[in-house]
Amino acid sequence: MKTIVSIIVCSIVLWSCSTIESYVDVPLALKIPSNFPPLTYNITQNPPTEMGFELGKKIFYDGRLSSDGDISCSFCHIQQNAFTHHGHTVSHGVNNASGTRNSPSIQNMAFQSQFMWDGAADNLDFQPVIPLLSAIEMNGNLEAIIAMMKADPKYVKLFSLAFPNKQITTENLFKALSQFMVLNISSNSKFDKYRRNEVGGDFTADEVAGYAIFKNKCANCHATDLFTDNSFRNNGLSINPQVNDVGRYRLTQLPQDYYKFKVPSLRNVAVTAPYMHDGRFGTLDAVLNHYSNGITNSITLDSTLSQNGVLGIPLTITEKSQIISFLNTLTDNQYITDSRFSE
Predict the structure, then answer these.
(1) Contact 131/279 with Cβ under 8 angstroms?
(2) CA end-to-end span of the chain, whole Å?
(3) Per-residue confidence in pLDDT tens, the chain, 343 aa
(4) 3-state DSSP assignment of residue 78
(5) 170-182 and 153-162 are packed helices; what angle lies between their axes, rounded to 10 degrees?
(6) Is 73 helix (H, G, I), strand (E, B) or coil?
(7) DSSP 256-284
(8) 177: left (phi > 0), else alpha (psi -120 to 50), else beta?
(9) Closest to 64 (Cα-Cα) out of 130, 136, 152
(10) Do 178 and 327 contact (CB within 8 A), yes or no?
(11) Listed residue (259, 120, 125) closest to 182, CA to CA
(12) Is the model's pTM score more than 0.85?
């Protein structure tokens, strides 16, 4: 009997030891595209490694982080749609609960300093806390999540490989997610090749014309090759009285922030419908029609949409068609099919 007990005890010890592996410090190169601005994320505080990235990806795709065991981060951030919730006007969460806002993409987040439509997070390491704990999104419980991970041999192994202290903690959980998101860089569209004079970057006449119109009439907000100036603006959407989403005002309580939302990047915009913070427009045509003749005036309306008493941005039918031709060049097929980011 003592022999059997000894064998069982030794087996448990050996199993425990086999799951705690040595930290593997294999850094992942983060190459900043030549047409991009500098990183905003402080990568020195959380440098991506092979195992940190793999851990972050596993967490990103794990539905067990939610209260019902089904809603993972990837549920609202689908890779083939540039990590947006394609086809849903607003995000759906646990028990099919509906939110009030459309899921923004997680592309190029390392170049941003504020996140969410109202800027509720100003650090990428903390951003996932918001959807994770939201009662209508993932409705997660951090204590339960950590307990689940500690009971899962795969997580025990990955955490021990990804971090020097080998600990399964909320800090390491969010750092791993950040490593996954930091590497989510979309920079190989036809537009990027055009800008960098690379093979495959030849524009058609309509794309050239559309780019010129875009720079003249749209780039004040959708600035740089990230296609956002990361500001918060009121873009003249009519107010939905059933929701009355006051935008950034909800966070700052400053009157000048009423109905202001973060300017989204337009990268991969052709595959990320529906559009606007509440997903009210299903096509790019509808978006351009809004800007040309659908602006609603208000005290906080962005000044670029009210010039000399005229609301909106004058656009002809031809100009709209050419802008859309240009916007289609922002689709990065390599990014939306990259197996590194797939489950």
Answers:
(1) no
(2) 46
(3) 434 333 333 333 333 444 568 888 899 999 999 999 999 999 999 999 999 999 999 999 999 999 999 999 999 999 999 999 988 899 889 999 999 999 999 999 999 999 999 999 999 999 999 999 999 999 999 999 999 999 999 999 999 999 999 999 999 999 999 999 999 999 999 999 999 999 999 999 999 999 999 999 999 999 999 999 999 999 999 999 999 999 999 999 999 999 999 999 999 999 999 999 999 999 999 999 999 999 999 999 999 999 988 999 999 999 999 999 999 999 999 999 999 999 9
(4) strand
(5) 70
(6) helix
(7) GGTTBEE----TTGGGS-SBSTT--B-SH
(8) alpha
(9) 152
(10) no
(11) 125
(12) yes
The pair of structure tokens assigned to 1 is: 């009997």
Tokens of 315: 């656009």
Compute the distance between CA of residue 335 and CA of residue 331 in angstroms, rounded to an integer.
9
In this structure, what token pair is assigned to residue 177? 């997610």
Tell me the CA distances in angstroms from 320 to 269, 292, 326, one per residue in order. Answer: 15, 9, 10
Burial of 49 (0-12, 13-18, 19+ CB in 10 A): buried
CA angle at residue 60 from 168 to 231, to 5 degrees? 110
User: Which residue shows structure tokens 């994770």?
Assistant: 132
User: What is the phi-psi region of residue 289: left when phi exceeds 0, alpha when psi lies from -120 to 50, beta otherwise?
Assistant: alpha
CB contact set of 249 (below 8 Å; sequence gap of 6+) = 255, 257, 258, 259, 260
